[in-house]
Structures are given as structure tokens and as C-alpha cells.
From TrEMBL:
UniProt protein name: N-acetylmuramoyl-L-alanine amidase
CDD domains assigned to the protein according to its UniProt record, in alphabetical order: MurNAc-LAA
Top enzyme category: hydrolase
Catalytic activity: Hydrolyzes the link between N-acetylmuramoyl residues and L-amino acid residues in certain cell-wall glycopeptides
Organism of this sequence: Galbibacter pacificus
Keyword flag Metal-binding: no
Length: 215
């Protein structure tokens, strides 16, 4: 029954997005923020019990709130708006249904080394016409995390994550590891609403900068 409910919820989300798409009076660029994990998949769990699925959802919802308050809001959608598990393939299906121009997947990191810290941004390790734009977006996000938050940059990296692999030929796509929940400082950081807002603002500024340059 839970699986059926999840599938129905996702179909409803797709229909809602299609309705919004149909109501647009002029072409608008669309950005999908993929909120990692959810439901029974908690993702990384920090030393203070903080869960990755909750951290990234809080950040994504704050990005939406800040964007709506902007004088020139962007057209941003989330792959999930609550604690629901959406399959990786369904996340890409949503991006394709919306004909998304940019795909940003949000995650938190985990390490057996309690001293590991900082932000990583990944792009697909296979080349496409969007590789350059993906790399540009990755560096912009890194720059804003360092400038706005003082987060250590662990660099732009290349990987074969499914959400990157399935988007590589259709749009610029990045996967952001916003920090290590297993690091005491960074784990505690994400427990503070004001800090979550700061992270969301850094992400939004990176998207805005990219949009002004390329969208």
C-alpha cells in the first residue's frame, strides 16, 4: 500500500507540474532542485542524529521561500516537497517532463574520518554538450559557499552518479554535497535555522549568477 501511495503521490506531482507548465504565457527557464533521499532512506546520519534527508529538504524549502521573495524569482521546482522517497529514475523523469534547463541534486556527506569537512560539487564523468555549463555551475556554487559561508572547498569532482548520468545529455546537471554531517562543526551547523537559511541563500545566489550568465 505504501508503494502504491508513493506512486500515486509522484503521479500527482507530475500532473501538477504539467498543469503549471501549460499555464505559462511565455517560455521560462526551469530549474529542478533534486532533494536527495527521503522516506525510509535517511541518507547520511550525523553524530548528533541529524539526517541527510531532513537537512536537504530544509535547505530546498528555504531556497523556494527566498526565491519567492525575490524581485525577479526564478522558476524553481523540487523533486520532493516532504518526507517522501522518490526513485532516482523518477527524479529524472520529472526533469524531462518539465523540460528542465538546470538540474541540481542536493546531498550531505559522510565520512569515517570525523575531521573530514567542506563542500564537494560533482558533474558527470562523461562528456556531452552540457559538460562545460555543468562545470561552470559547479564552480559558481563552490565560490558562493566559500564567499558567503566560509566553507572549505573540496573541489569540483567527476562521478557516474545516476542522477548525473541520466541528465548529462539533456541539461547542465550537478550534485552538491553541502557538508559532512559526521563532522561535529558542520553537523551542528545544519541544526540551526539561521544557518540553513544562509546555505539556501548561497545556493540561490549561485543559481542567479549562473542564470544571468547563461539562461
Amino acid at each position: 500500500m505504501k508503494k502504491v501511495f508513493k506512486n500515486v503521490s509522484f503521479v500527482f506531482l507530475l500532473l501538477k507540474m504539467c498543469f503549471i507548465f501549460g499555464q505559462e504565457t511565455a517560455p521560462q527557464k526551469r530549474i529542478v532542485i533534486d532533494v536527495g533521499h527521503g522516506g525510509k532512506d535517511s541518507g547520511a546520519i550525523g553524530i548528533n542524529g541529524i539526517k541527510e534527508k531532513d537537512v536537504v529538504l530544509n535547505i530546498a524549502l528555504e531556497v523556494l521561500r527566498l526565491n519567492k521573495k525575490s524581485k525577479t524569482p526564478l522558476n524553481i521546482f523540487l523533486t520532493r516537497y516532504n518526507d517522501t522517497l522518490i526513485s532516482l529514475s523518477d527524479r529524472t523523469k520529472l526533469a524531462n517532463t518539465l523540460d528542465t534547463d538546470v538540474f541540481i541534486s542536493l546531498h550531505c556527506n559522510h565520512s569515517d574520518n570525523a575531521n573530514a569537512r567542506g563542500i564537494e560539487v560533482y558533474v558527470a564523468n562523461t562528456k556531452s554538450q552540457f559538460s562545460g555549463l555543468s562545470t561552470l555551475l559547479a564552480y559558481l556554487l563552490q565560490a558562493y559557499f566559500k564567499k558567503e559561508l566560509g566553507f572549505e572547498s573540496r573541489g569540483v569532482k567527476f562521478a557516474n552518479f545516476q542522477v548525473l548520468r541520466e541528465n548529462v545529455d539533456y541539461r547542465p546537471a550537478v550534485l552538491v554535497e553541502v557538508g559532512f554531517l559526521t563532522n561535529e562543526d558542520e553537523g551542528f551547523y545544519f541544526l540551526q535555522p539561521s544557518k540553513v537559511k544562509a546555505v539556501a541563500m548561497a545556493i540561490l545566489k549561485g543559481i542567479y549568477n549562473y542564470s544571468n550568465k547563461r539562461l
